[in-house]
């Protein structure tokens, strides 16, 4: 995993949500959660694994919706933040946090209905092996996101501390074929980069988001979207 040492630092975990999902970043948080819920619905009573769960944004949300969720992450500091978040929430389902490696998942084949990985695919050293491992422990569905090569994110991607990877639609489609996953749906979003939203107040970000949404959603502009949300099923 790229940026592993940076990611596991205590100060990074403590500031992770505030730096990324405050101010205009709240719009990103809501959109990502919407994408996950739309892909998985109905959530209640499903068994779900989230890989690289971080501070538990998605794991807690899914448990609140009645799912039985396991959140796995390599960072003890991130898991500490997730457990604290879970303690403050009223959960309808169950939630367990485990420390582990996304490349060697400690679960048997077909163990979960759904496996998700958000904000991680761009850090995987071997994306095909990572996707195969997700598929191995899923019995029905694999959901993930990618940051796109032909987008505004490429402008500042070189400056990120973990050296993340951008993907074209064709590359991801090839990976799906190699791992025997069938594409159900892919949604493209955010013509403007995430970093811009996080840097400005929520009010201004909301205005930009309205313009962004109006311009997006078309075949031409979709190619310039920063992120894609992939919903796939096992063949």
UniProtKB/TrEMBL annotation:
SUPFAM superfamilies: S-adenosyl-L-methionine-dependent methyltransferases. It comes from the Archaea. GO terms for biological process: methylation. Keywords: Methyltransferase, Transferase. Residues 49-139 form the Methyltransferase type domain. This is Type 11 methyltransferase. It comes from Natrialba asiatica (strain ATCC 700177 / DSM 12278 / JCM 9576 / FERM P-10747 / NBRC 102637 / 172P1). InterPro entries: Methyltransf_11, SAM-dependent_MTases_sf. One of its GO terms (molecular function) is S-adenosylmethionine-dependent methyltransferase activity. Gene3D superfamilies: Vaccinia Virus protein VP39.
